[in-house]
Specification:
single chain; seven-stranded mixed sheet
């Protein structure tokens, strides 16, 4: 079940995200791994124009994703943020459902597009993003603080 993050979900969601970084060999420097908000996702997304959702299966938090306004960007653009899933939630369409849910919510809040950054070897994620209308762009937008992510994608609503 996809639901809004709650305060008590913070430690588990941080654990899921950090484990994905370890499992996939994602650089820790210059990525979401270093974000101060990683320990306090509920608080970081409990604000206007932002949301974070968790995936709960059999009472266990196994993934999540969120969005918020893209800092220092032209226009009303959001950024898809911290979309990570534990291995048990991968390959069974939860990524599709979570991404679609986030995009629908962002569009309802009036965003005109969604930006994201990812790693080149995260091909399954890139395939998912393309399936949902994201296109590769030549360079970064706004200021995410994630200088280690060299793949940039954008979707217009």
């Amino acid at each position: 079940m996809i639901r809004p993050i709650q305060l008590e979900d913070n430690p588990k969601m941080e654990q899921v995200i950090r484990a994905v970084f370890e499992d996939m060999g994602i650089p820790k420097t210059g990525t979401a791994y270093e974000d101060e908000d990683l320990k306090r996702l509920y608080q970081a997304y409990n604000q206007p124009q932002a949301a974070y959702y968790v995936l709960e299966l059999d009472g266990e938090i196994v993934g999540g994703a969120g969005f918020s306004k893209l800092r220092q960007a032209d226009g009303n653009v959001c950024e898809l943020q911290k979309m990570y899933f534990a291995p048990k939630a991968r390959g069974i369409n939860w990524g599709d459902k979570m991404l679609e849910h986030c995009l629908q919510q962002a569009a309802q809040l009036g965003y005109s597009g969604c930006y994201l950054e990812t790693m080149p070897y995260m091909e399954a994620a890139q395939h998912l993003y393309k399936k949902h209308g994201f296109e590769f762009i030549d360079g970064p937008m706004g200021c995410t603080g994630h200088v280690a992510c060299p793949v940039f994608m954008f979707k217009t609503f």
